[in-house]
Amino acid sequence: MKKTSKREKNKGITLIALIITIIVLLILAGVSITTLTGENGLLEQAQNAKESTEKAELIERAQTDILTIQAKNYGDLSREQLKTVLDKYFDNVPEDYTKDSELTGKDEYGKYIIKVSDIYDGILGGSIVPAGLEVGSIVTYTPSGTYEWEAEYCSSTLADDVVLDSSTDNYKINQWRVFEIDKINKKVTLVPIKPIEGKVYLGQAQGYNNGVYLLNKACESLYGDTAKGIKARNINIEDIEKKMTEQALQEAHSYVGASVGYGEQEPEAYTTNSSKYPSIYAKEILSVINQNKNNSGLSKSEQTSLIKRSDEGAVNGQITTATSIQPYLTSWSKTMSNTAFRKAENGISYYDLIMPKETNTTYWIASRGVQGNTSGGFFAIYCANTGKGSILGDILYLSDGNVLENRRALFPVVSLNSELIMGNATDGFSIK
Question: What are the distances in angstroms from CA 305 to CA 210, 298, 313, 344?
Answer without folding.
Answer: 8, 11, 17, 35
